[in-house]
Amino acid sequence: MSGVDNGLSRVEVKLRWDPSPYGEPPRHLDIIAATYAADDPHGRPVYIVHHDSRSPDGTINMSRYSETGMGLGYVEAMVFEFDRMSSAYGRVVVGVAIHQDTGPRTFGDISNGGVLVVEGYRQLLADDFAGVTDATAATVAEFTRDAAGAWEFHEMVRGFDSDPALFAAEMGGVRQ
Hints:
The protein is mostly beta strands. It has one helix at about 165-170, and strands at about 10-15, 30-35, 45-50, 60-65, 75-80, 90-100, 115-120, 120-125, 135-145, 150-160. A 5-stranded antiparallel β-sheet has the order 4-5-1-7-8, with no helix packed on it. Strands 3-2-6-9-10 form a 5-stranded antiparallel β-sheet, with helices on one face. About 35% of the residues are buried.
């Protein structure tokens, strides 16, 4: 067995929430990932992946998508293949945004919300958004390359008060 640590390889971020109560508009959450250049890890994202897209090289994509929750466990999932990702990228930030088209909603309004980050059977993060109940969006994870090029996971649950489009632009910035 080798003592070399190659870091993370294939990671999945999963999202769950219950459907809206009968008669109310659907509650819709989305996983969003922003990828940053290795030489500018806190600058502008090189690309953003969400339900309508995937990374240009196919290393980040949605494997499951829901617009209503369903209440059947983790119904939305995004897959990250870090072992295939170009060395041009040095940081990936993952967040969750609540669509605001039917009026303002926060994580406190979402029933049974939660996010799970796993690599194979190893759980890296499980969170129920209890720490960000007043937020309309939240980052949940940061992945960075170390000096040897191996990908590492960092828990990063931080709340934001912005719509999905603005959140995608600001989620990876440095917070004061």
